[in-house]
Specification:
about 240 residues; alpha/beta; Cytosolic phospholipase A2 catalytic domain; 2 domains; 6-stranded mixed sheet; elongated
């Protein structure tokens, strides 16, 4: 390295893959840990996570090792609760309740429109009209947010990007314009809790409701690409 040249950073970039992908990440990271000499996967300078990878990256940046995460999965860790079905597949009761209230009224309105426009209204017109009352997601993405928030409230953990010694970036997608959003960005999204960022990054459209933060709604970061290696490079990784 030349005199005056800043040392390059190391980065770990994790993509999505749902619950299966998260378990795969943990197993692969544990294998990498076994191969590394004088360092572990918790020693990277930068962590970038998308979708399921955002959950694993958040735990790694907080110092949790793959072995600890495996203990969590099996329910063997003394302090961290295992992730349960209800933390991932919690029915979006509010939207479903609104749906049951709106559907009869909407069906009556569509029936009236169909009779008035008989022959002009197509099947696709009916589907488009019904889309107005379809729930935004079958499951509540905030269930995952609550789980992550509870675990990162443990001693030695933090739900705040600014408190971490490592750089952590979580990728989501802006639902309004489809742009990539980087939570943890020091100039933009640094004050948003890690748990809320993970929920937004993991909110697969139709399956989970979008996560509203301020005036904007966010969905799964994997919609814009499975990984964000370019971000790690921009932040100084090589």
């Amino acid at each position: 390295m030349n005199r005056g040249q800043k040392p390059s950073k190391t980065a770990l970039v994790l993509a999505g893959g749902g619950l299966t992908g998260a378990v795969y990440h943990i197993g692969a990271l544990r294998a990498i840990d076994d191969l590394l000499v004088d360092r572990t996967v918790n020693d990277f300078d930068i962590y970038v996570g998308t979708s399921a990878g955002s959950l694993i990256s958040s735990f790694l940046a907080n110092g949790l090792s793959p072995d600890v995460m495996l203990q969590v999965i099996y329910g063997d860790h003394p302090d961290i609760d295992p992730i349960r079905r209800k933390d991932i597949f919690s029915i979006n009761q509010l939207d479903l309740l609104e749906w049951t209230i709106k559907v009869p009224k909407k069906m009556a309105s569509l029936g009236f429109q169909f009779l008035r426009s008989f022959g002009d209204m197509t099947f696709f017109d009916l589907l488009w009209s019904m889309s107005e009352v379809i729930p935004a997601g079958l499951y509540d993405a905030m269930a995952l947010e609550r789980y992550v928030r509870d675990q990162l409230s443990q001693p030695g953990q933090s739900n705040n990007f600014a408190d971490l010694e490592k750089e952590l970036y979580i990728i989501a997608t802006n639902l309004d314009n489809g742009d990539r959003v980087i939570f943890g960005d020091k100039e933009d999204q640094h004050e948003i809790p890690i748990s809320l960022s993970v929920a937004a990054s993991s909110s697969l459209p139709m399956l989970y409701n979008p996560i509203r933060i301020g005036e904007k709604e966010y969905v799964d970061g994997g919609l814009r690409g499975t990984a964000s290696i370019d971000l790690a490079i921009e932040e100084g990784a090589s």
